[in-house]
Design a protein that fits this description.
Layout: H1 4-18, H2 22-33, H3 37-43, H4 48-56, H5 64-80, H6 84-90, E1 98-109, H7 110-116, E2 119-123, H8 125-128, E3 132-140, H9 141-147, E4 163-168, H10 174-181, E5 189-193, H11 202-211, E6 215-218, H12 223-234
Parallel strand pairs: 3-4, 4-5, 5-6
Antiparallel strand pairs: 1-3, 2-6
Helix pairs in contact: 1-2, 1-5, 1-6, 2-5, 3-4, 10-11
């Protein structure tokens, strides 16, 4: 039987293996699971220096067997302590409303993300300078409005809230911004797709300014092109 733990381990190991930087990806997942190098090394019956060498890139090409052991040790530790991270990971997988959800290996500047989505800033331009993101989520706004409960909305934040929320099929921008206003945590950036700057509701801009969340309109023509561009450039 495939369990939540084994499904999570398989997905995480695959992400690490396919990452442009295995070292950064391994370190990021260890930090997400909240283990110190010494604790993880002990569970793997290794010297902490071995973990350090792989995570720093001093040792290259860890191999699939090592990655499998590494991830299984993280997942097993989490399950022994209540399974909070595994549970959060499994509820953050794509659904009909969540079209794509990605965690970055490192920090990505908001400016770079803005360029990728061909964005026009509508609110809090000053907050974008120097700000960074750790991931992004693409949300079908119509499907989310029709199907999401209050708890479901938490799924869009994946493993962290320092991310861009990209809402597609937007008509005025009011509904996504109200949803963000009444829930916690808050994202680092909101991107609206499917409308022009002149169509954005004044209330949406007001909420963004009050909540101190940069608000952006994407000028990319289609939802498919937007998702593909993000996938190719950022994963």
């Amino acid at each position: 039987m495939i369990t939540q733990a084994s499904s999570a381990a398989k997905a995480i190991a695959g992400e690490i293996t396919l990452s442009d930087s295995c070292a950064d990806s391994m370190k990021r997942w260890r930090q997400i699971f909240g283990l110190k190098q010494t604790v993880l090394a002990r569970r793997m019956s290794l010297s902490p220096s071995v973990i350090s060498d792989y995570e720093s890139g001093r040792r290259t090409s860890p191999g699939t067997c090592f990655v499998k052991r590494y991830v299984e040790s993280l997942v097993d530790y989490d399950m022994e302590h209540g399974g909070a991270v595994v549970g959060k990971f499994m509820t953050s997988q794509p659904t009909d409303a969540i079209k794509r959800i990605t965690e970055f290996d490192g920090l990505v500047p908001c400016r770079k993300f803005l360029d990728l989505v061909d964005g026009v800033i509508l609110a809090n331009k000053k907050l974008i300078a120097g700000a960074s993101l750790r991931g992004y989520t693409v949300i079908d706004s119509i499907s989310a409005i029709l199907n999401f409960s209050g708890n479901d909305f938490q799924k869009i934040y994946g493993m962290n809230s320092q991310r861009a929320l990209v809402f597609t099929k937007v008509k005025m921008g009011r509904s996504p911004m109200i949803a963000v206003k009444v829930t916690q945590p808050k994202p680092g950036l909101i991107v609206l797709h499917g409308l022009g700057p002149e169509s954005v509701d004044d209330l949406a801009i007001h909420i963004a300014e009050k909540e101190k969340i940069p608000l952006v309109i994407s000028r990319i023509a289609s939802e498919e092109e937007l998702i593909e561009r993000l996938r190719v450039k950022l994963g």
